[in-house]
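Target chain:
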Amino acid sequence: MLSKRVIPCLDVRNGRLTKGIKFKNNVDIGDPVETAKRYYEEGADEIVFYDITASSEARGIFLDVVEAVAKQIFIPFSVGGGINSVDDMRAVLRAGAEKVSVNSGAVKNPDIISQGAAQFGAQCVVLGMDVKRVPVTKDIPSGFEIVIHGGRKHMGMDAIEWAKTGEALGAGEICLNSIDADGTKDGYDIELTRKVVQAVSIPVIASGGAGHPEHMVEAVTDGMASAALIASIVHYGEWTVPGIKRYMHDQGVNMRMVW
């Protein structure tokens, strides 16, 4: 049985670590490089970085931060935000990341997924999905819609169908973020997570809403996710990475432990 992963997520804006609720009202909470180093030393399985305004501001990714992080941590980390071409992917991987996360860029140009997988391997390409609950319609039969540009633009695309398309194009993993749950600390959207997991055969990372380790347990058991993304719960010192992993282990979840 594969171990479940705990993955701290660091949202970066203007080179600084930031956090908001439902993609709004972001505040500065520290230095992303030092924070990443701390989570690595605490035993995080991976780390995810998002440049949260790169796409909406139509600018390139924060390569200086990626290079600085690569010198400090020695676990896999992925980078997303503002990645719109294979050249952008190559630049991020050369800067030291193991994976690239494509989100808005992939919605606008799905071929970037297959091109990236062909160039660098499917294991390097993560399909990031930002999702909102909406009324069920003919175009969105699941009731979950894809939105892009940091939750600013609704696309009229069904999230479950987009997950299937992303896998068919060559994505090796999905990072699934519920905008409705993001930053609320009320728990992941288990229904959304389970629907996507059941629709694809690649690993799915649950994201958005972690407020207590029990939520992570639910995400990887009831939600069937391969990993749980965390942010506020560790950024604000309510729990540590080792504390979360011990809790999950004690609840019977198979974890890679650092005692």
About this structure: Residues 134 and 143 are 5 Å apart (CA to CA). The chain has one domain: 5-251. The chain is about 35% helix and 25% strand. The domain at 5-251 is CATH 3.20.20.70 (TIM Barrel).
